[in-house]
Write a structure and sequence with these properties.
Number of domains: 3
Oligomer: single chain
Low-confidence stretches: 1-13, 65-72, 353-369
CATH superfamily of the largest domain: Response regulator
Number of helices: 12
Strand order of the largest sheet: 2-1-3-4-5-11
Structural class: alpha/beta
Shape: elongated
Helix content: 25-40%
Order of helices and strands: HHHHEHEHEHEEHEHEHEHEEHEE
Mean pLDDT: 86
Strand content: 5-15%
Length: 369
């Protein structure tokens, strides 16, 4: 027998415990772990505090020393957290933030939660290790897990979805008003009387705001709401929602609604595919209008009428807010950016052409019979 030239293998280096690990062992949120380790800013019950400290001792958890130095060091970089890059809206916003930040002499460290496969708190630890000066978060599923950043003095600005934490800034559009305007267009411009809705997940306030906008427009016109279906903000979710509406038509022998407000562009792409597979013509049999206004809405067949979120403006205002906070300025932490309505063939409007005076939308409306 001959000995290996490489020698015995080195023992595996144990993984460093994270704040996530402490929270899981103690049965609390990562925010509570932060409150215990930083003695605030919120009080923690004595029993809970002892559980957290016991977990810290058992795991030999050592907070990242870099976090404590963030206030006195600059990295000229910002972190950006998105739930997934598969969603075109999130991808477009990430690109706009990176472009705008570069023009201001900053780089962006992008972190994707990969639809829950990576935790937001782990990404927060990564941002701290990279010494980012601020973090922009888009559609965070668990914004409470970003408390580590705030506790370390890192400004956090949310875009699009309200995290519900007054310590974070927010740049958004008025989702309720946008949905109301889209639905009101279906009623006023086309005379549709029975209008359904494909809603987003019930646990997302932004999804509920869009549903409330649809309901408000229908009620203001003295109409009863059409059928509503809840689905994920994905193509698959929109496809399933359309199938549910079609199945309901077969079960009840009631016709489909004449028009549908679909709460996101991703849903709308899947919705179109499903109804067209079933032989339903859009907009002749069923008109569709949606929300977000990503580039892909131009290239569906038919092209989708949509509420447009102004991605470059959202990115710019988020970076403005970060700049002001870092400079210690007293500014409003909640910024609302106007959305707009782009009209295309899916709702029954004519293809793009010369617009009537005072009409800023892309398409021209034609009253439906």
């Amino acid at each position: 027998m001959t000995a290996s030239a490489e020698g015995p293998p080195h023992p595996a280096r144990p993984a460093r415990a994270t704040r996530d690990d402490v929270a899981r062992l103690a049965g609390v949120s990562t925010a509570v772990v932060s409150y215990v380790l930083n003695n605030g800013p919120r009080p923690v019950a004595p029993g809970t505090r002892e559980r957290v400290l016991a977990a810290v001792r058992r795991l030999d958890y050592r907070p990242n020393s870099l976090a404590r130095a963030l206030r006195s060091q600059r990295s000229d970089s910002y972190g950006m957290l998105v739930p997934t890059l598969e969603n075109p809206f999130f991808a477009a916003l990430a690109d706009a933030v990176a472009t705008c930040a570069q023009a201001r002499g900053r780089t962006v460290v992008l972190g994707s939660a990969a639809r829950g496969r990576v935790s937001e708190s782990s990404l927060a630890e990564t941002f701290l290790a990279r010494r980012v000066e601020a973090v922009i978060t888009v559609g965070a599923d668990h914004p409470d897990r970003l408390g580590t950043l705030i506790d370390a003095g890192v400004p956090v600005v949310a875009v699009d979805r309200d995290p519900g934490d007054p310590r974070m800034g927010l740049v958004t559009v008025d989702h309720r008003a946008g949905a109301r305007a889209a639905t009101a267009h279906l009623i006023a411009a086309h005379g549709y009387r029975r209008i359904g809705c494909v809603a987003g997940p019930v646990d997302l306030p932004v999804a509920q705001d869009r549903v409330l906008g649809w309901r408000s427009a229908v009620a203001s016109a003295g109409l009863a709401p059409g059928p509503a279906v809840t689905a994920d903000f994905t193509r698959r979710g929109g496809h399933a929602a359309a199938r549910a509406l079609l199945d309901g038509r077969r079960r009840t022998q009631r016709p489909l609604p004449r028009a549908v407000f679909v709460s996101s562009g991703q849903q709308a792409a899947g919705f179109l595919a499903a109804v067209q597979e079933a032989g339903v013509r859009v907009p002749d049999d069923l008109a569709v209008i949606t929300f977000d206004g990503t580039e892909e809405t131009r290239f569906t067949r038919p092209a989708l009428s949509t509420v447009v979120q102004p991605v470059p403006a959202l990115a710019g205002r988020a970076l403005d807010l970060i700049r002001d906070v870092l400079r210690g300025r007293e500014v409003a932490r909640r910024v609302t950016v106007p959305s707009s309505l782009t009209l295309r063939r899916s709702c029954g409007c004519a293809p793009p052409g010369p617009a009537a005076p005072g009409l800023p939308e892309e398409g021209r409306c034609s009253k439906s019979p």
